[in-house]
Design brief:
Layout lengths: L1 E11 L2 E11 L4 H20 L7
Antiparallel strand pairs: 1-2
Length: 56
């Protein structure tokens, strides 16, 4: 199997937008599938922390 990532970026009038989607195609190894799921969960947890004035 394969892991395919599609990433789209737009820059318009000084604004930047980006989106990404990962697809698991065929028989992807269990460890790779688990890694993809954990990374997605980590991304969403990070997004929840993004707020005006927040710092790293």
């Amino acid at each position: 199997g394969d892991i395919i990532n599609v990433d789209i970026t737009v820059i318009k009038d000084g604004y930047h937008g980006d989106t990404s989607k990962m697809f698991l195609v065929g028989d992807v190894p269990i460890r790779a599938s688990r890694l993809a799921k954990i990374c997605q969960e980590a991304m969403y947890l990070g997004i929840l922390e993004v707020k005006p004035g927040a710092t790293l």
